[in-house]
């Protein structure tokens, strides 16, 4: 005998997946705002720490923390009380996704919206939104295609203005989300409720017990990503708030309006739209490709997220540059990428094969069908039926006036005689007899429905009979043989 | 051993089905027009002949005819020529379904349509159409429910005005159609083309080789049916043409208009609509219940036929008083029957069980799915793969850099390494090894789609390995075991 085949070392492979098996380039986060949308336990690990750490030190620290929390529980494991609620809250995120927008709403009462400012806001909303979906998400987090410098600069610039953190942070937590979907390690774990997956997860401190890592060394290899991360705070403030303020002020003297509407409001709307991918897209809609996990397809989610709403597809085929595959589905991000490739700004667009896509569809439909089948009455399975010998059938036929033998199976049709669409006399002629041929084309080739009905009337199987449960198939064989007659 | 169970005598049973096993009431056909929509070979058998004939005389005559046609071919078996075309045509039907309408169109040029006459025509069209669908078809031909005298009189009266023959004739050929659907015995055999099933069948003489009979003794038991049949010609002429002429003439002095529009035109439209059930309903639309025969469901057919367009359903469930089962489908005939039952005019409404209906849907969907499945690549079946022992796997792994063992199956992933959405390094770590656990949750619980992809890369099976082709199921079992981890 040969020796066993070596198994992949799970610990080593996890280190590869987390990117902790090799030194990672040092990239210093650009201040607190760079950490938005990463959660605290993750924020505590800086890039250089990641680089230095190997699996053993990580494991050692996990053990340490476990010990610590076995004595004193982490804040996330304690109930919310009047005394500790402020410890539960992630105040940085609170300011960036709630306090600033509320301030914006308050200021808005003093500043009427001008239509030029509105147009500016909508324009920046579109540029920012597409930078998140086409850039942050499909380009960087999923490597669904490659992009030349101008497009990457565009994405990094306008993406920063969405106040959702740097590409590096965003890509990391998104990869963790895909890798750990619907587990406690999933940062936006949809199983914990709509609110939690929408904003709750970023407003309260998470449990470090469930920390997770994903390899993002390929992101850090891109100088655009590194530069954006380093200068994130200033870039974000400039693109998100100062730029719209200056444009609206310089050209039509609406500094405050530009700040409020094309700045704060725009950022708020983009944030909410992005959050919808984590909440709505895991809650409403169909699951045409797989229903073992929460992601769902819904046109509504697609509308608010520039086409990211076909999320059931996306979780099955994450590195496909498309989210929608049918022409009538709404996926402007896909069109942007496709158009960019036509003018040479994007290349290497990845798609999953049509075969793989249709396999998913077929398997999911099969599941649904199996569920429907299980809820219907298909007649007693033959193996659960009593076996009668012929003598017993004769005897019984004298007592009960509605026994008909078809395909080696005894059916009690007494309750159906007067219901028979072909008339009572024909069934009466057949009771106590073998009606296989008559029923299967000799007199009338019954519909598939009639064969189903017949099965529900099974009561016994004839010993040594030519038994076949699929009477419709038996009929088709009989008909094929007598084809010449027609 | 017991003696064999007697089989149903096919000849006897066919006699029962044809109604030739017992004397049938004598009902004299009311002139040539009563025979409309029956075809010539049928028309030659009058009701009293049927009553006198037993199976033996029928068989004898069949033999006789066979002999006759073996010498001289029946007109229907001869090609159409300049010399014999007038022998091919069924002139009675030609007059009733083509000549009269053409005459009507010609007269119409001289007689402008008045709106009152139009309303009368539409009213009579509705009353006539519903009498065919609710009366001729569902009540009498299919016994889908029972009706009290007033409703039967209503149907018989307005049904006569549709110039489609008597209930007796109509019901007979319709039962033959259902019993012999898609065979040469089917009077409107859809397999012979759209035109043939629409009107061709009644305009040319059929081949008596394919004559067929159905038992209609239950129809003849109804005195309304007998009376209508006896007086058909006068009743038809009166209801179809004279009545609308008189009404329009007496009340708004439009005798000619009443005759043309509310008489001839109305009859023409109803005829065409009815013919559509034989043609359109076997040609356009979906087959949600069964696709082994031609009938189809289509909203368009339903619209022109007062709801008879769900013909795939109808051929599976002919004695169901409904044709449409969903609330949003158009079936006014069903509503008429249902409303009649609410006011006591109809009773004993028959439906097939929801179970039987859903069984049909499920089976048909399964067929479609199986067809789709068969067109996709699911990877080489394990039984067609070579069996490698472990030694051979080691050896091969040295040559080819992309062999991965998962679930006892060897996969060649070399072409996929750089395509891997989880990154190339993870696959590289796994080559030459058993990656079952890593692939199935140890590092990442792959999507169903990934498992499908994996299957397409199979190249061999490991001897004495723990082989399972359903790697997704294997993964789900593994995940269930380590549930506690999340
Ligand atoms: C024993 C159980 C039987 C069941 C459950 C049954 C069921 C049905 C059903 C559901 C139909 C409606 C049409 C269709 O679905 O195809 C039908 C019609 C008919 N059946 Fe049966 N049948 C039985 C036995 C027989 C036998 C033994 C005969 C002949 C000896 C027979 C002859 C006919 C005929 C002639 C029709 C009329 C076809 C038509 O006009 O649509 N049936 N039967
Ligand atoms: C050998 C054949 C393999 C195939 C065909 C394959 C296929 C895929 C596919 C299609 C995805 C996209 C996400 C999904 O569909 O679930 C994926 C992601 C991934 N795979 Fe694999 N994989 C293979 C091997 C491996 C191995 C051996 C490992 C681990 C040792 C691994 C780890 C991962 C990880 C970590 C991801 C990223 C999850 C994410 O961010 O979405 N894969 N793989
Ligand atoms: Fe998601
Ligand atoms: Fe994603
Ligand atoms: Fe039909
Ligand atoms: Fe019918």
Summarize the structure.
With 486 residues, the first copy, chain A, is mostly helical. In chain A, helix 6 packs across helix 14, helix 7 (115-141) packs across helix 8 (149-160) and helix 7 (115-141) packs parallel to helix 14. Chain A contains 23 helices and 6 strands.
Please explain how this structure is put together.
The structure is a homodimer of 486-residue chains. In chain A, a hairpin with a 2-residue loop joins strand 4 and strand 5. Chain A has 486 residues and is mainly α. Chain A has a 4-stranded mixed β-sheet. Chain A has a two-stranded antiparallel ribbon with strand order 1-2. The first copy, chain A, has helices at 10-18, 40-43, 47-52, 55-71, 85-88, 91-108, 115-141, 149-160, 167-179, 194-203, 217-220, 223-230, 232-252, 255-278, 299-304, 311-316, 332-342, 354-374, 390-399, 424-430, 436-439, 448-455, 471-481, and strands spanning 146-147, 346-347, 387-388, 403-406, 409-412, 458-462. Among the domains of chain A are: 86-278, no CATH class; 382-484, Cytochrome b5-like heme/steroid binding domain (Flavocytochrome B2, Chain A, domain 1, Roll). The first copy, chain A, is elongated and about 100 Å long. The interface between A and B is large, with 81 and 81 residues. Bound molecules: protoporphyrin IX containing FE (HEM) (2 copies) and fe (ii) ion (4 copies). One fe (ii) ion (FE2) binds at residues 137, 141-142, 174, 178, 314, 318 of chain A. One fe (ii) ion is lined by residues 137, 141-142, 174, 178, 314, 318 of chain B. Chains A, B: Its EC number is 1.14.19.1. Chains A, B: It is found in: Membrane. Chains A, B: InterPro entries: Acyl-CoA_deSatase_haem/ster-bd (IPR009160), Acyl-CoA_DS (IPR015876), Cyt_B5-like_heme/steroid-bd (IPR001199), Cyt_B5-like_heme/steroid_sf (IPR036400), Cyt_B5_heme-BS (IPR018506), FA_desaturase_dom (IPR005804), FADS-1_CS (IPR001522). Chains A, B: Belongs to the fatty acid desaturase type 1 family.
């Amino acid at each position: 005998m040969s020796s066993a085949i070596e198994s992949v070392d799970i610990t080593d492979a996890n280190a590869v997946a987390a990117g902790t098996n090799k030194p990672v380039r040092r990239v210093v986060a650009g201040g607190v705002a760079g950490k938005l949308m990463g959660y605290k336990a993750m924020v505590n690990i800086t890039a250089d720490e990641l680089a230095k750490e190997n699996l053993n030190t990580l494991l050692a620290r996990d053990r340490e923390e476990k010990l610590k929390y076995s004595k004193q529980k982490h804040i996330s494991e304690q109930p919310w009380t009047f005394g500790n609620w402020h410890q539960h809250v992630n105040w940085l995120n609170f300011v960036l996704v709630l306090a600033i927008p509320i301030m914006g709403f308050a200021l808005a009462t003093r500043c009427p919206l001008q239509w030029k400012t509105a147009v500016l806001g909508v324009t920046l909303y579109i540029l920012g939104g597409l930078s998140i979906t086409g850039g942050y998400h499909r380009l960087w987090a999923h490597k669904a295609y490659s992009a030349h410098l101008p497009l990457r600069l565009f994405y990094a610039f306008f993406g920063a203005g969405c106040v959702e953190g740097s590409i590096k942070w965003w890509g990391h937590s998104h990869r963790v989300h895909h890798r750990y979907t619907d587990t406690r390690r999933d940062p936006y774990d949809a199983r914990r409720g709509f609110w939690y997956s929408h904003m709750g997860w970023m407003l309260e401190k998470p449990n470090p017990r469930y920390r997770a890592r994903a390899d993002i060394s390929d992101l850090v290899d891109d100088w655009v990503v590194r530069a954006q991360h380093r200068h994130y705070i200033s870039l974000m403030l400039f693109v998100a708030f100062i730029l719209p303020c200056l444009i609206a002020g310089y050209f039509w003297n609406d500094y405050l309006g530009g700040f409020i509407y094309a700045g704060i409001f725009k950022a708020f709307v983009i944030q909410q739209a992005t959050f919808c991918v984590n909440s709505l897209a895991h809650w409403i809609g169909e699951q045409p490709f797989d229903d073992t996990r929460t992601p769902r397809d819904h046109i509504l989610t697609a509308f608010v997220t520039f086409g990211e709403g076909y999320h059931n597809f996306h979780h099955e085929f994450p590195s496909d540059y498309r989210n929608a595959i049918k022409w009538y589905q709404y996926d402007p991000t896909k069109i942007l990428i496709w158009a960019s490739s036509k003018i040479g700004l994007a290349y290497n667009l990845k798609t999953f094969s049509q075969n793989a896509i249709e396999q998913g569809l077929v398997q999911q439909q099969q599941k649904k069908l199996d569920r429907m089948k299980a809820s219907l009455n298909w007649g007693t399975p033959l193996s659960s039926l009593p076996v009668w010998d012929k003598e017993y059938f004769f005897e019984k036929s004298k007592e009960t006036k509605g026994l008909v033998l078809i395909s080696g199976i005894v059916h009690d049709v007494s309750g159906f005689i007067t219901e028979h669409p072909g008339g009572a006399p024909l069934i009466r002629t057949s009771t106590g007899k073998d009606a296989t041929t008559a029923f299967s084309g000799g007199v009338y080739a019954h519909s598939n429905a009639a064969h189903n009905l017949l099965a529900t009337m099974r009561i016994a199987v004839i010993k040594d009979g030519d038994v076949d449960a699929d009477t419709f198939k038996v009929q088709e064989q009989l008909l094929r043989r007598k084809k010449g007659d027609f």
